């Protein structure tokens, strides 16, 4: 072992001793009380080896009971009633057997001349049973104390987190209020342009109107709305489609299927419109023989949203994965196991998305 290894080992031991200094101090006081004070009153002391052997057993019993027996016995509430008595009984048996073995070694292999004799009667077994129960009781109290301190620490951490969340919410609300000034100005400007262009350039005015509606919806959806009606999302998808149709002179090949009844279903905002935006950004939507499709339907009390589109020959996947992963995280946070979200590229170079949400 090199000098560096020895130094590292020494530092680890020193760190462990400092970490356990309270335990060491308490055990030192306890052993001093029992070995010295009781010895003075009784008028008899044992050899140092005897103290080391039996107190090592008692200390090991204490920590084994607190960290192993109590932990596994109380892990499942439905099994506590039989596990705890069984584990304690087994622990007592093992303690007694170890005590007998240590007594045998002490009597036959050391110069011990004390009062202990290997006579297997009630008096012989009474002492180790008492000592085992004595340390197990202390260990049980220690176990519940540790749990209490751990739960209190969790509560304190949750309270700190709650306060931090309140502070962050307050900061976010302040930033949001400041950010409202610019959108408000933008919407007023777009409305002014729309009013002046609708007579002279109806196509441009229609594009401006669709764009303004979509932007207003996007801003409103970032407020405290957790759920919205699909009706709102469908309207904005139609605005988005209309905007792109105007840009491409109505050559966009996109079919949008849904029943009017589905408009009253509630969903988290900006899911459907994000999926459609990805289709326009990354898909080939100008081929009449391969039209893209968006379908919304309810089957078996589940909302199903499916999209499919031919992939562009020149791929531009920037932002595709991040947008879809963002949807997946939002769905998982809100719906948990009640939502399934999958997307694949099939052998025909179609990109297909399937979202299923279990309705309440």
UniProtKB/TrEMBL annotation:
Thylakoid found in the keyword field: no
MF annotations from Gene Ontology: phosphorelay sensor kinase activity
InterPro entries referenced in this protein's UniProt entry, alphabetically: Bact_2-comp_sensor_kinase, HATPase_C_sf, Sig_transdc_His_kin_internal
Residue intervals passing through the bilayer: 21-46, 52-74, 86-107, 119-145
Pfam families membership: His_kinase (PF06580)
GO cellular component terms given for this protein: membrane
Cross-referenced PANTHER family: SENSOR HISTIDINE KINASE YPDA
Keyword list, A-Z: Coiled coil, Kinase, Membrane, Transferase, Transmembrane, Transmembrane helix
Coiled-coil residues: 146-180
Biological source species: Pedobacter zeae
Keyword check for Transferase: yes
Signal transduction histidine kinase internal region domain ranges (all copies): 173-250
Protein name: Sensor histidine kinase YesM
